[in-house]
C-alpha cells in the first residue's frame, strides 16, 4: 500500500470526467473516492476543481476519523479559501451501504477487487454500467 500520486490522480479524474461527458466545468458534477482512507485524494480533488460535491467513502473508522479531522482543520485555517468544491463529505460506510447513485466520476485505488467487476458482483460492477 502506498500514497497515490496527486498529479496522476488529477489526470485520471479529468479523463474520467471527459469520458462521462463533462466539459471543463464540473460545478454541477459529483465525484467520489471509494476506499478514501484519510481523505487526501478527496480534498485534493476539491482544491483543484470546482465540483458540486466530493465524497470519500471509507469503511475503517480510524481512517474516516482522520479524514474528518483533517477536513475540519482545513476549513478552520487559511486553507479554507483553497477548497473550490461546493461540498466535501466523508462517509464511514461500506461501498454497498453508501449512497452512490448521484455520482458522475468515481475513483477507487484498489488492486484486489478485479474479480468483482469482471464477474458482475457488487457496487464496482454497477458503477461501470
If you had to describe this structure to a student in words, what would you say it looks like?
The protein has 129 residues and is of the alpha/beta class. The chain contains five helices and four strands; from the N terminus they run αβαβαββαα. The chain has helices spanning 6-19, 40-48, 61-75, 114-119, 122-128, and strands at 30-34, 53-58, 88-92, 105-107. Helix 1 (6-19) crosses helix 2 (40-48). The longest helix has 15 residues, at 61-75.
Describe the structure concisely:
This protein is an alpha/beta fold. The chain is built from 5 helices and 4 strands.
Secondary-structure topology with pairs:
Blueprint (H helix, E strand, L loop, with lengths): L5 H14 L10 E5 L5 H9 L4 E6 L2 H15 L12 E5 L12 E3 L6 H6 L2 H7 L1
Parallel strand pairs: 1-2, 1-4, 2-3
Order of helices and strands: HEHEHEEHH
Report the C-alpha radius of gyration, rounded. Answer: 14 Å
Instruction: Report on the biggest sheet.
Output: 4 strands, parallel
Q: What proportion of the residues is helical, as a percent range?
A: 25-40%
Distance between the termini: 28 Å
Coarse structural class: alpha/beta
Helical stretch tally: 5
Mean pLDDT across all amino acids:
87
Strand order of the largest sheet: 3-2-1-4
Label the overall shape.
Answer: globular
Uncertain segments = none
Strand elements, count: 4
What brief labels describe this structure?
40% helix; globular; alpha/beta; four-stranded parallel sheet
